[in-house]
Write a structure and sequence with these properties.
heterodimer, A: Rossmann fold, 6-stranded mixed sheet, 12 strands, B: about 450 residues, alpha/beta, 11-stranded mixed sheet, 9-stranded parallel sheet, about 40% strand, globular
Chain lengths: ~260, ~450
């Protein structure tokens, strides 16, 4: 059935500067599911986030990505966002001179326009701002400033989750959202994600470490290695990775590669 | 072929018939400087690109044009200007409309505003405050290789006079709406003197608007005296069309403990060159020079700044930003001069530009001349494109590429606008800049500051 999956990634290959980074990645996510993608540095985690959000750094060379039955790869970054994809950036960008209020108002109204809705009234918009600020425990003063300007690392991550709360995506991609956070900030950010999630909101958590997954508990854990998902399992896989590192994955992956090559001969 | 000899011939003709024509009845206080100034102009000529200060600015586009008339107002001229009447919305200012730099009813006396501030024409000022005018007139303007300053001294017949006597504080900004209007192509020169005495405050907003499509060239000289512990702010909003040239020379002379800020916002103009000179003549004075320009098509916008630290313990900043599209070109030439005795000087300069097309061009030239040994000075210049990461960040939230670019340009520009001290004005100018970036602000007939 076409609508069974929210997003369906099939045999995706992508390169940066002619170097192949994703080498045939497949992943299917149903509405409401939480998937964690773990993997060592350079395995292609961030490239996956870039490809899904339409950033032109990476070039897709093969494969398909279907989002709610539509060809995601044909859409511009803004269309993807309006369709309900949200990326929480690993390194949120500072934008001096652009106020948070103006930024969020523009983003929300573009999304509403896309859905055939009237722009939000000023009072309704401010009410939502207030409500969502409390939800993610972000300091009011921050949302009166320019986008991320002078924010600490933790504040920037909270601000990502605040934006997620405002935009209510269908699919949230959390790219290393835990990096640079102390344990308190991590809890606040993770709890924020849990509070704003609706039952049918799907989440793909991209992370190095298991600790975020204590709070945002995944249904599935996938190991990304050398541009491919080489192992999938339940939350226990994350614990195993935490405990044993990635070396055994590397060995397994290499072994299976050899076996595969031998078999073909 | 050099266009200049013919222009100089025409100006010489004007000069030779001055007593019966242009300068008939001009006060002696001004006349006494004219002969020397004219020969100085003949010596220096119209600056070309061999002149360091004009290295990136070619004046031929404006000065080479054959104007039908050298503007000198007759009473009937003001009829159009008087018709120009806007509802001042929530901007609480004292307002006056000028025509091509001249005051209607300029021959009448000066007017006194609440708080004791005087406003009127230079001619009237010479009659009413002769010793004050004598003390300040032509004392701060410097020719320094620029023939256009003495050209103004020689031939400008009138202009605006503002006087804040000792300790007068007029809290409202004064708004001067300067309309460029004529049925002929004109060259106009106005000469202005602003005196802010010890402990006084003055805040001035000057809006230049071209309201008819003729070719214009304006060469303006403004001298400003800021006394001890006095405060002076000037904000210029320039919105002219592509066939207009605007050259301004502003000389701000500051005594000890004073504060001054200049903010030039250039929204439109064929050729605009703003030269702003700040002289810190007494200790513990502070001065700021800001500029923002948005240029497209074949427009050329140049800012020249010189901050002269002549006394110790003074602070200065320069911040200039520009957005250039199409075939537009821009220039920034900023000088900081720290004299030998000006120890403990803090002087900062920054120039940043965004280039939106392959054919736009920006030249920047910072110059530091430091003769004291205990100073903090810095300068920085960037010319670049919009930040791709920031652009993607906005788009990833559903904002389309065009709007995202606009937001980034606006954010870039706001960095200058946020230094405008009056909040209502800041908002107004934010809106103007946004309209300009959206391409909605054209050479419209309305003064965009006031009207919808």
């Amino acid at each position: 059935m076409q609508t069974e999956f929210l997003i369906q990634i099939k045999d995706l290959k992508a390169s940066i500067d002619n170097k192949e980074i994703l080498k045939g990645l497949s992943l299917e996510v149903k509405p409401g599911e939480i998937h964690a993608i773990m993997g060592p540095n350079g395995s292609g985690k961030s490239t996956l986030a870039n490809v899904l959000t339409g950033r032109e750094i990476a070039t897709v060379t093969a494969g398909t990505v279907t989002f709610e039955g539509k060809n995601l790869l044909e859409m511009s970054p803004e269309e993807r966002a309006r369709e309900g994809i949200f990326l929480s950036f690993q390194y949120p960008i500072e934008i001096p001179g652009v106020s948070m209020v103006n930024f969020m108002k523009t983003a929300i109204n573009e999304q509403r326009k896309h859905r055939g809705l009237e722009p939000l009234s000023a009072s309704e918009f401010l009410r939502q701002m207030r409500e969502k600020k409390e939800l993610v425990e972000i300091d009011s003063a921050l949302t009166n400033r320019s986008v991320n300007e002078g924010f600490s690392g933790g504040e920037k991550k909270k601000n990502e989750i605040f934006q997620m709360a405002m935009l209510e995506p269908r699919l949230a991609l959390l790219d290393e959202t835990d990096s640079g956070l102390d344990i308190d900030a991590l809890r606040i950010v993770a709890n924020g994600v849990n509070k704003i999630r609706r039952p049918d909101t799907s989440v793909i958590v991209i992370t190095h470490y298991q600790r975020l997954l204590d709070y945002i508990v995944p249904d599935f854990v996938h190991v990304l290695y050398d541009g491919r998902i080489v192992k999938s399992g339940g939350p226990e896989l994350a614990l195993k990775l935490e405990e044993r590192g990635y070396d055994w994955i590397r060995k397994e992956a290499e072994v299976s590669e050899e076996t595969w090559t031998t078999d073909r001969k | 072929m050099d266009y200049r000899p013919e222009v100089i011939n025409r100006l010489t003709e004007l000069w030779e018939t001055r007593d019966e024509g242009l300068l008939k009845g001009s006060p002696d206080i001004y006349n006494r400087y004219r002969a020397e100034a004219f020969s100085e102009f003949l010596r220096l000529g119209i600056p070309d690109r061999k002149n360091e200060a004009y290295k990136y600015t070619n004046l031929e586009k404006s000065f080479g044009y054959k104007y039908e008339k050298y503007f000198s107002p007759v009473p009937g001229d003001f009829r159009e200007a008087e018709k120009f009447h806007c509802e001042v919305q929530d901007l609480d200012v004292w307002n006056m409309v000028l025509l091509n730099g001249f005051l209607p009813k300029g021959d009448e006396g000066l007017a006194m505003l609440p708080g004791g501030l005087w406003v009127g024409s230079m001619k009237a000022a010479a009659r009413q405050f002769p010793s004050l005018v004598e003390k300040h007139y032509n004392k701060y303007a410097q020719n320094e290789n620029d023939g256009l300053v003495p050209l103004n001294t020689a031939l400008a017949s009138d202009g605006l006079f503002l006087y804040a006597p000792k300790n007068t504080v007029y809290t409202k900004p004064i708004q001067i709406v300067n309309l460029l209007h004529s049925t002929q192509d004109i060259f106009a020169q106005d000469r202005n003197l602003l005196v802010v005495e010890d402990g006084a405050q003055m805040s001035l907003l000057v809006c230049d608007h071209a309201i008819s499509p003729q070719h214009y060239l304006t060469n303006t000289v403004t001298e400003v005296y800021v006394g001890r512990n006095a405060r002076f702010e000037i904000i210029r909003v320039q919105n002219q069309h592509n066939d207009s040239g605007k050259i301004t020379h502003t000389f701000i002379h500051q005594e000890r403990d004073s504060f001054a800020s200049s903010n030039n916002i250039t929204l439109h103009g064929g050729l605009v060159r703003n030269a702003t000179w700040h002289r810190l003549n007494g200790e513990n004075a502070e001065t700021h020079s800001y500029g923002l320009f948005l240029a497209d098509k074949h427009q050329h916008i140049a800012n020249f700044v010189k901050v002269d630290h002549a006394a110790p313990n003074c602070n200065s900043t320069q911040l200039f930003k520009g957005v250039l599209d199409d075939n537009a070109s821009g220039a920034f030439n900023g000088r900081i001069m720290v004299h030998k005795d000006a120890q403990k000087t803090n002087a900062f300069q920054s120039s940043n530009s965004i280039i939106m097309s392959d054919t736009a061009r920006m030249d920047t030239k910072p110059q530091l001349e430091i003769y004291a040994d205990d100073v903090k000075c810095s300068h920085g210049a960037t010319v670049g494109q919009l930040d791709e990461n920031a652009l993607f960040y906005l788009r990833s939230r559903g904002i389309d590429a065009k709007e995202a670019k606009l937001m980034l340009m606006f954010g870039f520009a706001h960095d200058v606008i946020k230094n405008i001290p009056i909040e209502a004005l800041r908002e107004r100018i934010d809106n103007l800049v946004l309209q300009r970036l959206r391409g909605e602000l054209s050479r419209c007939a309305s003064c965009a500051i006031q009207c919808n």
